[in-house]
Amino acid sequence: MTGYAPLEALLTVGGPELSRLLHRTESRLAQVAETHGRELGGHVTHTLSAGGKRLRPMLVFLCGGSGAGEDLVRAAVAAELLHMATLVHDDVLDGAATRRGRATVVAAAGRDAATATGDLLFSRAFAELASTGREEAVAVLSQASSALARGELLQRADAWSDSVGEERYLERCELKTARLFEAACRLGALLGEPGPEAADALGSFGLRVGIAFQIFDDVLDVSGPPERTGKPRGTDLLDGTVTLPLILARRRDPELRDLDLRSIVTEPAQADALCDRIALTGALGEARELALTYVAEAKAALSDLELDDRRREALDLVADGVVERYA
Amino acid sequence: MTGYAPLEALLTVGGPELSRLLHRTESRLAQVAETHGRELGGHVTHTLSAGGKRLRPMLVFLCGGSGAGEDLVRAAVAAELLHMATLVHDDVLDGAATRRGRATVVAAAGRDAATATGDLLFSRAFAELASTGREEAVAVLSQASSALARGELLQRADAWSDSVGEERYLERCELKTARLFEAACRLGALLGEPGPEAADALGSFGLRVGIAFQIFDDVLDVSGPPERTGKPRGTDLLDGTVTLPLILARRRDPELRDLDLRSIVTEPAQADALCDRIALTGALGEARELALTYVAEAKAALSDLELDDRRREALDLVADGVVERYA
User: Fold this and answer.
1) How far apart are CA B31 and CA A143, in angstroms?
2) What pLDDT does A9 receive?
3) CA dihedral sign of residues B123, B125, B129, B131
4) Of A64, B168, B285, B287, which is most buried by a Cβ count within 10 Å?
């Protein structure tokens, strides 16, 4: 849980209850690995213990409030497991060597092991949530899983494209990232204090926070600095992933529009140079502005909800936090 | 549902109710594909409509009997979806071109699409079963999924090995195949007429039927004939998968024991020749005998259960059927 600036503030607002719930989530994630044999269990542990911001569990808890504690932990664990499952399979397809500073499963143990590990994480995510006995909750996660798979396909279909526009990019952000944020918030509503009648508003909050998160992630890939983000600049460009900064920069710089990404970005130094060029157009500021618009919309989605002040403050902190971070 | 000899007999014994349940399973499988976008939905449809014996759904229904119809259909669909999910990912790892006479998803649409399709099928399997609201049923499927993943790893770890023995082979059969057969039978018991108290006996039946099924599958790979099995002989040998016929043949023919599989089987004609050589040792008969032992054990596992004659006859037919088939 490093690199996420608002965490400390959140834990102050969320109080000991939030800390306790997050702690129970970690314990449960560690347990999940234990019953799958030595090799597979090892890969699952390796994946789950790599950490991350645990942003999806946090959303479950902040939206869920107090009440129905055990079910909220199950939902938080399920959302994180689904997220991890997609990361493990993404790394297989990308042949990625490291994630969060440690070797990926595919790099450490090969494609077979990583595919099996991801499959297991998918299964466990749903088994965990099903243990709440709440069918409508499982349906929410299932829809998010479908969106994730479609988003992944969209991203790969659009790789190296010179014609991806803002609308298509935002659709991808929604499918690939924001729908699981939405699901986490909906699960919090369904299984926690707010109840089903608050699920749409909280879901809408989560969706917009998710889009802002993804846009800002894509800004960080271009802006760096690497010593803060923990990865070289332009990683997406090297993969051929066309993100908002490049889309906006192409509008502002006609020469950029005519460049064939595949031919000019073949090594890290070139990606770094292209990042500088994108930054020079002012595209990063424009992208940040759009992310902030989604943050504002997210907060506005909560306006009709009856929330105690502490909860509203915490949700606002999360929304602001996704565009005030480095990792 | 072609190539499965006992099907007609089963449908006669099972009557119109079994036909109706299998028909509802097909309809539901077709529906599952519909809400995942055009591309992904297409791949899912392609996978699910390729058919197969629907042996796992059949086991759910035959063990479940009448009663709780909708939940049994959900369990049948879930078991088949989980099976399909593993096939799609296996094909990715193997780079397989065809399955059941049509192009695999990976061959038709690439690794990205096939990985996403498999992920989606995993998710849908659990969502489908969770819709029964029966937590213990989801736990059964989750354990089977874990076993499948471990079995897959075991198979790949043992590829090309010259030291895999019978015990290790049987462990792999159990994990890779039989545990899902067991789960299908347990689900039938839990959600159908027999109830939880019959789950162990029916699960034990399913496990042994599953092991017999896998052994006989491995015999067919060596014995052919290709015009009946629909694939060339020795496909497993070409993949380096060491199965019971080879293990037994190595015991009987010292020269076979000293052969390095990787160097002598590099093309289909060589695999075919090795199949002849394995057959000459008498290993196929011995392997068939072992499969028949498991079939007998499966039937014996039912002896203490109170079953009406028709149901017992149908379950015996399934058990006999796995070693009297070509596909």
Assistant:
1) 14
2) 76
3) positive
4) A64
Q: How many domains does chain B have?
A: 2
Flag whether B322 is in a domain.
Answer: no
In a domain, A63, yes or no: yes
Same domain, B109 and B141: no
Residue A313 phi, psi dihedral angles, 5° rounding? -60, -40
Q: Which residue of A119, A132, A140, A160 is the best one to mutate when testing the B interface, meaning the one whose CB has the most B CBs within 10 A?
A: A119
What phi and psi values does residue A53 have, to the nearest 5 degrees?
Answer: -80, -15
In the stretch 2-61 of chain B, residues with CB closer than 8 A to chain A read 35-37, 39-40
Q: Do B119 and B149 sit in the same domain of this protein?
A: no
Sequence-ordered list of residues with C-beta below 8 angstroms from that of A237, at least 6 positions apart, any chain: A221, A222, A246, A261, A265, A271, A274, A275
Domain residues for the domain of B192 are 134-307
Q: Between chain A and chain B, how many beta carbons pairs sit less than 8 Å apart?
A: 142
In a domain, B87, yes or no: yes
One domain for residues B303 and B154? yes
Taking each helix axis as running N to C, give the angle between helix B199-223 and helix B244-252, from 0 to 180 degrees, rounded to the nearest 10. Answer: 60
Helices marked H in chain B: 7-32, 38-48, 55-64, 69-94, 105-130, 135-157, 166-173, 179-191, 199-223, 226-229, 235-239, 244-252, 254-257, 261-264, 268-280, 283-301, 309-321
pLDDT digits over A200-210, tens only? 999 999 999 99
The pLDDT tens digits of the residues spanning B245-269 come to: 999 999 999 888 888 888 877 788 8
Q: Which residues of B touch A112 (CB under 8 A)?
A: 93, 152-153, 156
On the CB side of A125, how many CA atoms lie within 13 Å of its CA? 36
Do B203 and B259 lie in one domain? The reply is yes
B75, B107, B133 - which closes a domain: B133
Name the most confidently modeled range: A196-200, A234-238, B33-37, B303-307: A196-200
Amino acid occupying residue A313: E
CA-to-CA separations, A277 to A136, A161, A271, A273, in angstroms, rounded: 48, 18, 10, 6
A141 interfacial to chain B (CB closer than 8 Å)? yes
Whether residue A74 lies within 8 A of chain B, CB to CB, comes out as no
Contacts of A129 in chain B (CB under 8 A): 130
DSSP H/E element including A222: helix A199-223
Cβ atoms < 10 Å from Cβ of B108: 15
- List the CATH number of the domain containing A65: 1.10.600.10
Residue B86 shares a structural domain with residue B166: no
**Is residue B195 located within the same domain as residue B91?**
no
What was the pLDDT predicted at B277? 95
Which residues from A are below 8 Å from B39, CB to CB? Answer: 150, 153, 157
Tokens of A105: 């499963």
Helices (H) and strands (E) in chain A, counts: 17, 2
Co-location of B87 and B177 in the same domain: no
Determine the distance from the C-alpha atom of residue A326 to the mean position of all C-alpha atoms in its chain, rounded to a whole number: 14
- Six-digit token pair at A7? 């965490």
- Over range B296-309, report the average pLDDT: 93
Domain termination residue (choose one: B101, B118, B133): B133
Q: Are residues B266 and B284 in the same domain?
A: yes
